[in-house]
Specification:
24 strands, 20% strand, six-stranded mixed β-sheet, five-stranded mixed β-sheet, alpha+beta, 594 residues, single chain, 16 helices, 23% helix
Length: 594
């Protein structure tokens, strides 16, 4: 089965690190790095067995929310379910480029001179209820996101505002978006005030174009109610391979093949997706309970890598984990972030000290078997054209951390081991997700690293948090959380405006900096459409500055490893859609390990 990759930014927990005591050398752990030359494809030569049940396990630490709308969903678990029923309309190539790539439900071309994007759908496309699929649905999706009553996080007033007339529509000055010109049921011309280089990868004004809502099915639902309607929870229709036939909220989902899927009906009778805990996942693999398990903790790799019934696929991930600092709040009415929280972390030197105190490479080397490395920034190495190997990030340097704290006025005046200023100890509260056996010990290890330089870090609420609770706190910026541990799937558009700009709704740090915004804007300058060196240099300049300001501390990059039962006909982790595109099919029910 093709592994699911979401293009939207999805929150991921950092709670699956395996802990060790600070200061231990890798040689003491007896752990060696593994060879990372994994295959990217598994194919079974046996014939497909029609009518079988495809069994999927989804590892969770809390029940999935079940928000099955591509413009409202914001969790990885919901994203996995969505990937079965809501397929992106554009294909991509090996470099994540989507402009002028054929094969998907639609393709698009950028007309630079006329500041237009021309989108063309295939003829005869249908939703799973047999109704036509095309331009009207795409226009409706844009209207939903740009509507003043939209309740999700995909609205970007800067990038989407480049579509002619969209701002007037958002402000209620127009009943439609004038820049979305319907030429026919299958052709849309998007008129822009300016073109930017991120359009080539469906970024910027195209950032929601790959998503699609069915207008005919949802047109009678008030925009403010879209997120909660049963039509996007339990009674969904689909443009993907499958349709939901049964759902047990937070626990399991059953799917049946979409009769109208544009590439043909899938040869399985149904897909059964069940949630399971990290603790049960490896035994389930061994016993052949699933054809594939999604979301396996990396620390379980050593336990399943040699099982005889599995094929192991892998590639560098589109993810980075990070520690974020709670610096302000969001003004939802104005759509901006405000950096105004009264915290020692407003001093950049304190934030930098938090980063230099941590030996992240030691943790990565000792406990991830070579599957993770310390992150030096926020652009993962899989983006070969833009990854900056010269960027240092925050390497382990406790002496520098102490110097920075001293420069900021923090010294230990009473000998209790904690630095203080104006009679107050430097005590910070950390929000971190639990749910795995190793979340607690790794948290204690981080606390020890910080304690070694005089920073007292306590857990928010005195305990590890549920994933959903952590996400809610990150969005709300409460006073009982100063630092939070999280991660992002960066998406193939590699657009950081939503996570680090003044207007970005996913900028949970509420970091606001004029130069930072200017450098972010420069990344998407139209020069990047014709000069490949320009965009690479722009990424480099922005990332260097952003890391120096430390609204976050980059934590780790990882290698995605996917075990698949050998009874699956074909499974891949290719970047290019043409290579990864295949049926969901099996040659038998899952094998049991010998």
């Amino acid at each position: 089965m093709k592994k699911i990759l979401t293009a939207s930014l999805i929150l991921a927990s950092l709670g699956l690190l395996v802990s060790c005591g600070p200061g231990k050398a890798r040689s003491e752990m007896g752990v060696e790095k593994v060879d990372l030359k994994f295959a990217q494809e598994w194919t079974n030569d046996q014939p497909v067995k029609d009518g079988e049940v495809y069994k999927v396990g989804m590892v969770v630490t809390s029940p999935f929310k079940g928000i099955l709308s591509p413009i409202h969903s914001d969790t990885a678990d919901d994203g996995i379910i969505l990937g079965m029923i809501s397929e992106e309309i554009f294909w991509q190539n090996d470099n994540f480029q989507r402009a002028d790539v054929e094969g998907g439900m639609a393709s698009y071309h950028i007309d630079v001179d006329n500041k237009q994007v021309i989108i063309k759908f295939k003829e005869g496309l249908k939703w799973s209820d047999g109704e036509p699929l095309g331009v009207d649905d795409l226009i409706y999706t844009y209207e939903a996101v740009a509507n003043k009553d939209y309740t999700g996080s995909r609205f970007d007033p800067i990038e989407l505002g480049k579509i002619v007339g969209l701002t007037d529509y958002h402000e209620g000055k127009a009943n439609s978006i004038s820049g979305l010109e319907k030429v026919s049921d299958t052709e849309l011309r998007m008129h822009l005030t300016e073109v930017s280089s991120n359009l080539t990868v469906s970024g910027g004004a195209l950032s929601i174009s790959g998503m699609l809502l069915p207008k005919h099915y949802l047109k009678d639902v008030a925009m403010k109610d879209l997120e909660t309607t049963d039509k996007l929870r339990t009674k969904t229709i689909s443009n993907g391979k499958f349709v939901i036939s049964k759902i047990v909220p937070g626990e399991s989902v059953e799917f049946v093949p979409n009769e109208y899927y544009y590439q043909g009906k899938q040869p399985v009778s149904k897909v059964v997706l069940k949630t399971l805990t990290p603790q049960l996942a490896v035994e389930a693999l061994k016993q052949g309970e699933y054809h594939e398990i999604i979301g396996l903790p990396q620390d379980s790799y050593e336990k399943y890598k040699d099982l005889s019934n599995l094929a192991i696929l892998g590639r560098p991930a589109l993810n980075y984990s990070y520690l974020g600092f709670n610096l302000g709040h969001r003004d939802n009415e104005k759509g901006i972030n405000i950096q105004d929280r009264d915290t020692p972390l407003q001093d950049v030197r304190v934030r930098q000290a938090v980063g230099y105190a941590l030996n992240l490479q030691e943790i990565a080397d000792a406990y991830y078997h070579g599957l993770r490395v310390r992150a030096n920034g926020v652009i993962p190495p899989i983006f070969a054209s833009f990854y900056d190997s010269t960027l240092e990030g925050y390497d382990y340097n406790p002496e520098k951390a102490k110097e920075l704290l001293k420069e900021a006025g923090y010294t230990d005046t009473n000998g209790d081991g904690i630095v203080d200023k104006d009679g107050k100890n430097l005590t910070l509260r950390l929000g971190m997700a639990g749910g795995s056996d190793v979340a607690e010990p790794i948290t204690k290890a981080l606390q020890q690293y910080w304690a070694a330089v005089g920073i007292d870090v306590q857990l928010t609420n005195g305990r590890l948090l549920d994933n959903n609770v952590l996400f809610e706190k990150m969005a709300a910026n409460p006073d009982d959380m100063d630092i939070f541990a999280a991660g992002w799937s960066v998406g193939t558009s590699l657009d950081f405006g939503g996570t680090y700009s003044e207007t970005g709704s996913f900028n949970f740090m509420r970091f606001v900096d004029k130069k930072n915004d200017e450098l972010l804007k420069a990344i998407n300058d139209p020069k990047g459409l014709t000069d490949p060196e320009y965009k690479a240099n722009a990424y480099k300049e922005w990332q260097k500055y952003m890391i120096s300001q430390a609204p976050i501390i980059p934590f780790m990059f990882k290698y995605d490893v996917s075990p698949v039962n050998k009874s699956v006909k074909r499974s891949t982790v290719y970047i290019a859609t043409e290579k990864s595109n295949s049926q969901v099919a099996v040659v038998a029910q899952p094998e049991i390990a010998k």
